[in-house]
Amino acid sequence: MKSFSRGKSTTIGMKKDPIFIGITIFMTILLVVFVVYPVVSVLITSFQKGDNYSIFNYLEFFRHSYYYKSLVNSLILAVITTTIILIVAFSLSYTLNKTELPFKPLLKNGALLPLISPPFIFSLALIIIAGRRGLIYKLTGISPNIYGWPGLIISQVLSFLPLGFLMVNNVLQSLDPSLEDASSDLGASQVKTLFKVIIPLSLPGLFKASLLVFIMSLADFGNPMLIGGGLPIMATDAYNLWIGEQNMQMASVFCVLLIIPSVVVYVIQNYILKEGSYVTVSGQMIGTEKRKIAWYIQYPLYIVGFFTVLVIISSFTVIFLSSITKLFLINNKLTLMHFSSYAGWQALKNSFFVSVIAAVITSFTSIIFSYILVRKNPPAKNLLEFIGLLGFAVPGTVMGIGYILVFNKPPLVLTGTILIIVLNISFREFPVGLEAGISKLHQIDNSIEEASRDLGASGFRTFVSVALPLMSSAFAASFLYTFMVGMITISAVIFLISPGTNLASLLILRLAETGNIGKASAMTVVLTLIVLTSLMLLKFFSKKSNVEMLKGF
Question: Quick one: what percent of the chain has pLDDT higher than 90?
Answer without folding.
Answer: 38
